[in-house]
């Protein structure tokens, strides 16, 4: 793996503050970078669907559900309520909430604050979908002006203290309290600090381990013994996992062994031993590049050793073996590494990656981290997407054990600014997606990417667009859609990367969650309320077209088709969007092409698919002005013939046009033979 310098035509940007043209005109480079970031999202989707958060080395993550704002799902409410132990802190919080309609749970991450908040709200509002999670980007001012619905509970997780003047904060808090109380609603905030007065705060402590074990029906004598093995290093999720294991009949020693296997014992033992500089830097390289092929890892390691000024061989060489095999030593007995059948270097236990990163960060200073930082900056700008993906993953793990502000200022924002190449921006966006899996860093990530969106420079805006189209967009779909639309709306010229990002966000939401209704609904409302005419409305039309024409990377089937299959109720929203662009003559051909491709991707032999197409056409009739319906029928028929559509599919399409759009559409027999 070579560390190449940039050459012309490889996405190089000239000057620190490049104009938007530098980004939007490099269409091929932008498409390539979006595809690279999408590959990481595919990996995250696979991980999220198959295994829990602890096994991919990011602490505090949960495998379900994905969306972090909007109505809390019935499934998540039921999960939170299962075997929940209502202890002293919980009862104190319940009294505050019932009497004052709002409360803040102040405590450390990983202590069960979110689960407690869901139980608190369910106890008061109960009914399905009556609990709504608010985005952490809410400020005191936004909370003070929003409308609260009667008998609804509102949850605001990991909300930092708002940096406003005390008298202003007091004013906003009084208004929030009044609005919530007058609406008969309830608000629960969790965080390590908050702007709410002390009277609205509860110092949160996790339930005692023994109470959690007993709530899961673990026998008293077993619960008592197991509780003695729980330390402050164990998150509440670890305690619940242990309780479920014991309740399912797993013997205590085995259950504790599984708990310990996810802990720090083996890693701490390795670091406590005598280690050479070479071994430490090799461990640092693995912390950031685990999962790469052995050859690729060794190339990266050689570069790190060169930067650190150490030899390629171990510091001590045996006289009997002057050329020891580093590959054999690397995976020998007592090592934390293993080699997969595909010869990829991995940690023997995936969670070791987090613990290794913690030990490196806590035990070592600049002599290790300065060379590692320089090395990471080089890796972030490589042409190898697999390296970028793992480096991004490693940086996310570092943020979970270190101070987030250090990671943001040292890696994320410098990479987002590009420093001359666009590839580091892809690495920054990949890291954002990985960081979204950790509930402790997710609110900070949201603020970081929002600041990039609002930046005056072009490159952080581009990085923000990349980030919004990935896991961040899944977690906060409404915010992602709004921020991408701001980039499109506020630019004096077409912002192609933001349009590409909207298309990718539509595909990402459809694949990961089954629907992209927040995105479709926002644009349907935008187009319904927009009274501009002529070219002034072009940015909105282009944004909608990018969504309707979207395809997942490498997919032959349009995303719209997948979406209608997963979410048939979206037909009306999609019809409103199509209607809006079809009536704009300069964009009509593109809209026709998108509609034709989406319809023809359905299987005409499948009854369900035929029903979906009929529903879409019926909704399109309702959305189109009456005078436009026969014109659309005529143009779509001509377009279908020009695409050399096979006769069976063309006959079906024409029959639908006759039924829904124009009774005068000619039959296939009267069209005439094609040339």
Describe this protein's structure:
By secondary structure, the protein is mainly α. Helix content is 59%, strand content 4%. The chain has 33 helices and eight strands. Strands 1-3-4-5-2-6 form a six-stranded mixed beta sheet. A two-stranded antiparallel ribbon has the order 7-8. Helix 7 (166-183) links the parallel strand 4 and strand 5 (186-191). Helix 8 (209-215) packs antiparallel against helix 9 (220-227), helix 21 crosses helix 22 (458-468) and helix 24 runs antiparallel to helix 25 (496-513). The longest helix has 24 residues, at 27-50. The radius of gyration is 28 Å and the shape is globular. 44% of the residues are buried.
Strand content: under 5%
Compute the separation of the termini in Å: 54 Å
Helix coverage percent: 55-70%
Count of DSSP strands: 8
**Largest β-sheet summary:** 6 strands, mixed
What are the low-pLDDT stretches, counting only 5+ consecutive residues below 50?
1-25, 50-63, 315-319, 665-675
Rg from C-alpha positions? 28 Å
Widest β-sheet, arrangement of strands: 1-3-4-5-2-6
What is the mean predicted local confidence, pLDDT? 83
Silhouette: globular
Q: By helix and strand content, what is the structural category?
A: mainly alpha
Q: Give the count of helical stretches.
A: 33
Keywords:
4% strand, two-stranded antiparallel sheet, mainly alpha, disordered N terminus, disordered C terminus, 675 residues, 6-stranded mixed sheet
At a glance:
With 675 residues, the chain is mostly helical. The chain is built from 33 helices and eight strands.
């Amino acid at each position: 793996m070579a560390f190449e310098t940039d050459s012309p035509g490889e996405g190089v940007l000239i000057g620190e503050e490049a104009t938007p043209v530098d980004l939007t005109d490099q269409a091929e480079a932008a498409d390539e970078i979006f595809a690279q970031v999408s590959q990481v999202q595919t990996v995250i989707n696979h991980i999220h669907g198959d295994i829990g958060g602890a096994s991919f080395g990011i602490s505090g993550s949960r495998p379900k559900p994905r969306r972090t704002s909007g109505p809390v799902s019935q499934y998540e409410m039921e999960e939170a309520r299962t075997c929940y132990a209502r202890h002293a802190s919980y009862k104190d919080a319940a009294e505050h909430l019932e009497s004052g309609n709002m409360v803040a749970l102040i405590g450390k991450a990983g202590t069960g604050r979110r689960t407690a908040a869901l139980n608190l709200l369910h106890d008061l509002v109960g009914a399905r979908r009556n609990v709504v999670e608010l985005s952490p980007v809410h400020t005191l001012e936004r909370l003070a002006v929003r409308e609260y619905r009667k008998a609804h509970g509102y949850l605001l997780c990991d909300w930092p203290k708002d940096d406003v003047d005390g008298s202003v904060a007091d004013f906003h808090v009084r208004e929030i309290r009044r609005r919530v109380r007058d609406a008969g609603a309830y608000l629960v905030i969790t965080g390590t600090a908050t702007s709410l007065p002390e009277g609205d705060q509860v110092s949160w402590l996790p339930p005692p381990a023994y109470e959690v074990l007993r709530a899961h029906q673990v026998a008293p004598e077993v619960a008592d013994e197991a509780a003695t093995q729980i330390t402050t290093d164990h998150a509440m999720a670890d305690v619940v996992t242990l309780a479920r294991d014991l309740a399912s009949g797993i013997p205590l020693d085995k259950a504790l062994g599984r708990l310990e296997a996810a802990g720090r014992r083996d890693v701490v033992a390795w670091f406590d031993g005598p280690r050479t500089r070479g071994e430490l830097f090799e461990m640092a390289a693995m912390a950031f590049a685990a999962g790469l092929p052995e050859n690729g890892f060794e190339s990266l390691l050689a570069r790190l050793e060169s930067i650190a000024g150490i030899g390629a061989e171990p510091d001590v060489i045996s006289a009997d073996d002057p050329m020891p095999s580093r590959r054999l030593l690397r995976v020998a007995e007592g090592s934390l590494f293993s080699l997969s059948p595909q010869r990829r270097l991995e940690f023997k236990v995936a969670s070791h990656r987090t613990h290794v990163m913690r030990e490196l960060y806590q035990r070592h200073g600049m002599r290790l981290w300065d060379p590692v930082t320089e090395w990471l900056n080089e890796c972030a700008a490589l042409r190898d997407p697999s390296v970028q993906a793992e480096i991004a993953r490693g940086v996310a793990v570092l943020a979970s054990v270190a101070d987030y502000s250090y990671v943001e200022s040292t890696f994320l924002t410098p990479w987002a600014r590009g420093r001359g190449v666009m590839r580091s921006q892809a690495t920054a966006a990949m890291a954002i997606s990985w960081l979204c899996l950790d509930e402790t860093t997710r609110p900070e990530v949201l603020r970081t990417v929002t600041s990039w969106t609002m930046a005056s420079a072009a490159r952080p805006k581009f990085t923000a667009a990349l980030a919004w189209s990935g896991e961040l967009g899944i977690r906060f779909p409404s915010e992602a859609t709004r921020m991408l639309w701001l980039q499109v709306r506020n630019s004096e010229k077409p912002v192609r990367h933001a349009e590409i990002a909207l298309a990718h966000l539509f595909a990402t939401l459809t694949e990961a969650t089954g629907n992209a209704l927040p995105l479709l609904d926002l644009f349907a409302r935008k187009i319904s309320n927009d009274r501009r005419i002529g070219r002034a409305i072009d940015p909105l039309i282009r944004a909608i077209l990018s969504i309707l024409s979207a395809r997942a990377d490498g997919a032959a089937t349009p995303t719209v088709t997948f979406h209608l299959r997963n979410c048939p109720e979206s037909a009306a929203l999609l019809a409103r969007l199509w209607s809006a662009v079809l009536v704009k003559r300069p964009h009509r051909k593109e809209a026709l092409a998108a509609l034709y491709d989406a319809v023809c991707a359905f299987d005409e032999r499948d009854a369900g698919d035929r029903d979906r197409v009929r529903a879409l056409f019926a909704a399109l009739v309702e959305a189109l002005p009456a005078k436009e319906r026969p014109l659309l029928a005529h143009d779509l028929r001509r377009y279908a013939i020009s695409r050399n559509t096979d006769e069976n599919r063309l006959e079906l399409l024409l029959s639908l046009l006759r039924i829904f759009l124009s009774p005068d559409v000619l039959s296939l027999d009267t069209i005439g033979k094609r040339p």
